[in-house]
Amino acid sequence: MASAVFFVVFFVILIAVYIGFIVLQIRLSKMDSKWPGLVLPSITLLLSLVATITVFVKAGTDMSGYGSMWNVVLSAIIAFLSNNVSTIVLAGIYMYQRDRINRRAELARMNVQDL
């Protein structure tokens, strides 16, 4: 019973953290400078690269768990792709927000030209 309660609490906290990261990404992407919005996608991309390198390092120290080199490469590709889901989501939020900012700026320039 205690483990089920722990799982539910952990799951709720995990969802709250994910929502917090998404809200933070939206706020950073809405800033005038384009660089703050690229911070979180860059961090998640670096973390996925670390996970991919870790697969190669683990395979180099203990090859018995992986089998052939193709299995290591496949495991590294799967690690890279699965860890980049958050990078894709955060980059998508960034591109959407920057597109909205650019459209508003273009509309403002058009309105000024119409005057």
Automatic annotation (TrEMBL):
Domain of life (superkingdom): Bacteria
Keyword annotations of the record: Membrane, Transmembrane, Transmembrane helix
Residues that span the membrane, as ranges: 6-26, 38-57, 69-96
This protein's name: Uncharacterized protein
Record organism: Bifidobacterium breve
Organism ancestry: Bacteria, Bacillati, Actinomycetota, Actinomycetes, Bifidobacteriales
